[in-house]
Specification:
Layout: E1 3-8, H1 27-43, E2 52-57, H2 65-72, E3 82-87, H3 94-102, E4 107-113, H4 117-123, H5 129-141, E5 146-153, H6 160-173, E6 177-182, H7 190-196, H8 210-226, E7 230-233, E8 236-238, H9 245-251, E9 256-259, E10 264-266, E11 270-274, H10 278-286, E12 292-297, H11 300-308, E13 315-316, H12 319-324, H13 326-335, E14 338-341, E15 344-347, H14 349-353, H15 355-364
Parallel strand pairs: 1-2, 1-9, 2-3, 3-4, 4-5, 5-6
Antiparallel strand pairs: 6-8, 7-8, 10-11, 11-12, 13-15, 14-15
Helix pairs in contact: 1-10, 2-3, 6-8, 11-15
């Protein structure tokens, strides 16, 4: 069965590294958006029962508990196999956590990014390492034991010593899932633009280079796996049986329905995208129009390769798929970027670090 993704593109502050279509808005705008989101959910023709629900953003922990319950009541199938909520650390209370659990949330993903105060401040985040520890303890005490911590390798001023400090905190907290993202440098974030233009704001001159970021990532793989958090996807590590059930749907090409501004959907054949602007999204819903901005056939062969290769388990190559991509597969085998065991194709350790180059080749084929 499919999953459901709910987009909540509002934050308390815009982080310097963030390249998502999210931002700060008045509470009145957030309330209008929630009403539109519920309306889109209620208008949807449910022919299936969702297994997983993922509420991302933004910072959906900003939603008042009663409003969150009202929103999730519009999704059939509660309690789901997994209900995930993204949260900014530093403002989780026992009252909130209990309300989340009653509303169907079984998993919380904390956008920590770093446990080192100098790095945290440069991102625009406001939490401290002890606050993260308190949040984890609060969630566990209220029965939410599936907890993810996001970390970013490549923040300005980050050193091997400071990175080890963040990894030490992860080990100390004993969470069951960690996501490690290598800093994306592009025009869609304030920090990315500053780095590309050679500017000095947000600590841009002190951002590690690509080689160092790769070394930081490799260090994380080694440390996390030593503590029982095994890499099952390029950026994701979990104890056995604690993987994100919802996110696995994306990488295994299973269907999901997205609701809200900028949300994507995939029905197994076609992909569609909602309009990105929250104001335009609300306006379309109010006028009784579809919020979809684009729809197109999925490129299933290409997607099966570059999504399946993200997983440590790799993917099984059907004969026609192997024939179609014979040339790039042969090149990557020779270069040591992929390995073939029977009909199962996987990225090698070096291939993981150069995965974008590998994926691009399959997309262009």
């Amino acid at each position: 069965m499919a999953g459901v993704y709910l987009s909540y593109p509002f934050c308390g502050q815009k982080c310097t590294y963030c390249n998502f279509a999210s931002g700060v808005a008045p509470r009145s705008v957030e309330r209008e958006y929630l009403a539109a989101l519920i309306e889109e959910l209620r208008a949807y023709c449910w022919r299936w029962r969702p297994e997983t629900v993922y509420l991302g953003g933004g910072s959906p922990d900003r939603i008042e508990p009663g409003a969150l319950d009202h929103l999730l009541a519009a999704v059939p199938g509660r309690p789901w196999q997994e209900g995930t909520l993204e949260a900014a650390p530093g403002r989780i209370t026992a009252e909130k956590a209990h309300a989340w659990r009653r509303a169907g949330i079984t998993r919380v993903s904390l956008g920590v990014q770093s446990f080192v105060q100098s790095e945290i401040l440069r991102t625009g985040r406001r939490h401290t390492a002890p606050q993260v520890a308190a949040d984890v303890a609060t969630l566990q005490a209220t029965g939410i034991r599936s907890i993810n911590i996001d970390l970013i390798a490549g923040l300005p001023g980050q050193t091997f010593a400071s990175w080890r400090e963040s990894l030490d905190w992860v080990e100390r907290l004993g969470v069951d899932h960690v996501s490690v993202y290598m800093l994306e440098v592009d025009e869609h974030s304030r920090l990315g633009r500053e780095i590309l233009r050679g500017g000095s704001r947000f600590g841009a001159p002190e951002a590690p280079d690509e080689d160092m970021i790769a070394d930081l990532y490799e260090l994380a793989v080694e440390r996390l796996e030593r503590t029982g958090l095994l890499r099952y996807e390029i950026s994701n590590f979990a104890r056995p049986g604690r993987q994100s059930l919802h996110n696995l749907k994306y990488w295994r090409l299973e269907p999901y329905a997205g609701f809200g501004a900028g949300a994507h959907s995939f029905d197994g054949v076609r992909r569609s995208w909602n309009v990105e602007s929250p104001a335009e999204y609300v306006g379309r819903i109010r006028r009784g129009l579809s919020p979809a901005a684009q729809e197109e056939p999925a490129r299933l062969d290409e997607e099966r390769l570059f999504l399946g290769l993200r997983l440590r388990e790799g993917l099984s190559l059907a004969p026609e798929l192997r024939r179609r991509f014979q040339a790039p597969i042969a090149r990557f085998l020779e270069a040591g970027l992929v390995e073939l065991s029977g009909d199962v194709l996987r990225l090698t350790r070096r291939g993981v670090l150069l995965s974008n180059e590998v994926f691009q080749e399959f997309i262009q084929t």
